[in-house]
Design a protein that fits this description.
Helices cover about 65% and strands about 0% of the residues. It has about 375 residues and is mainly α. It has a domain of about 70 residues: Herpes Virus-1 (2-Layer Sandwich). It has a three-stranded antiparallel sheet. Helix 6 packs antiparallel against helix 7 and helix 21 packs antiparallel against helix 22. The relative contact order is 0.05. This is RING-type E3 ubiquitin transferase. One of its GO terms (biological process) is protein ubiquitination. InterPro entries: ARM-like (IPR011989), ARM-type_fold (IPR016024), ARM_PUB (IPR058678), Armadillo (IPR000225), RING-Ubox_PUB (IPR045210), Ubox_domain (IPR003613), Znf_RING/FYVE/PHD (IPR013083).
């Protein structure tokens, strides 16, 4: 038998072990008492899928699940202890009397419950979970901090939560982790930045924090594989906002990204593809010796997405600088472009055509 209680035994509404599981027309199972209370309150949508329900939805007994729960109770009765109520779990995170072990246990419960349940994520934020979670993110205990970051990441997955979490002060906490956390914590912190930046207004807010972009660039330098990749992804997410591109350039991101790209981190070309859109970005790239060689290498060996960004970046640079056109030619870009003209990917064909035209207009080849 499993050492952990199967999640499917708990009602998605009450989070308690179901005594009379029933199936909604949406296909999801709930405890009869909980779903009946939900329907009696006037709701006519599935609590999980949010899809509309009939006026009088049929509640079909889930005999198979009820039998499983019953059998499990007989074999492992000690494992069927009810999960604490969300409010109790949240309170333990802020209580001064709670020990680290208690907080860690509460966070473990909450991480599991929020992993796939958007309804429960929203419920937690409505209950005021954010301050307690952020307090644990600021903990000096690495295990507690990592678990709190995992919960914060889960909460950030819902667009409705993203702006509120930033307003609660999530960015300040996450920036500190980027600088001083363990490698795993830093990687999760960068992923949280990416998640929060999905909402457009958050991109400007994040970039406006004095140390946010600097911390991500620092992670590109000092981090390991996963940290570097997540930091590059976060920079890509926030640099779709134009003002953040200049901030990243001012923090010295361009030569670092080119170096990482040369070392095999293809995610770096996506960020360079955004930074090249501004004059300052192009100027910085032109200063880096071997920049064209690295970009041509991406065209030769990169993934389809990498080739797209490589073509775009190289074309932007060649449009502004005749010297770079001749460098590209010397690196064999024309032969590569001839091959890319036959690609199935329409964007690659279009970007290839633009680059060839740029080279012709600069008289780099006939």
């Amino acid at each position: 038998m499993e050492t952990q209680l199967p999640d499917d035994f708990r009602c998605p509404i009450s989070l308690e072990i179901m005594s009379d599981p029933v199936i909604l027309p949406s296909g999801h199972t709930f405890d009869r008492v909980s779903i009946q209370r939900w329907l009696d309150s006037g709701h006519r949508a599935c609590p999980i899928t949010k899809l509309p329900l009939p006026e009088h939805p049929c509640l079909i007994p889930n005999h198979a699940l009820r039998s499983l729960i019953s059998n499990y109770t007989l074999v492992c009765p000690s494992k069927l202890q009810p999960c604490p109520q969300p409010q109790i779990l949240i309170s333990s995170l802020t209580s001064q009397s709670s020990h680290v072990g208690t907080k860690l246990n509460s966070l473990t419960h909450l991480v599991r419950l929020t992993k796939h349940d958007s309804g429960f994520r929203r419920k937690l934020t409505e209950l005021g979970a954010a301050p307690g979670v952020l307090k644990c993110v600021g903990s000096d205990d690495p295990s507690l901090q990592e678990k709190a970051l995992s919960l914060l990441l889960n909460l950030s997955l819902d667009d409705d939560n993203k702006v509120g979490l930033v307003a609660e002060g999530a960015i300040n906490r996450v920036i500190k982790v980027l600088r001083f956390g363990s490698p795993d914590c830093r990687a999760i912190a960068a992923t949280i930045i990416t998640s929060l930046a999905v909402v457009e207004v958050n991109k400007a807010t994040i970039g406006a924090y004095p140390d946010a972009i600097q911390a991500l660039v620092w992670l590109l330098i000092s981090g390991k594989g996963r940290e570097k990749k997540e930091a590059a992804t976060a920079l890509y997410a926030i640099c779709s906002f134009a003002d953040n591109r200049r901030r990243a350039i001012d923090c010295g991101a361009v030569p670092i990204l080119i170096s990482l790209l040369d070392s095999g981190l293809e995610r770096a070309i996506e960020v360079l593809g955004l930074l090249v859109k501004c004059k300052e970005g192009r100027e910085e790239m032109m200063k880096v010796n071997g920049c064209v060689k690295v970009l041509v290498s991406v065209l030769r060996n990169g993934s389809s997405r990498g080739v797209q960004y490589g073509l775009f970046t190289l074309n932007c640079l060649c449009t502004c600088c005749e010297r770079l056109c001749f460098e590209a030619i010397n690196e064999g870009v024309v032969e590569i472009c001839m091959g890319l003209m036959e690609e199935e990917n329409e964007k690659i064909r279009r970007y290839t055509s633009s680059l060839v035209q740029t080279l012709r207009e600069n008289h780099a080849f006939g």
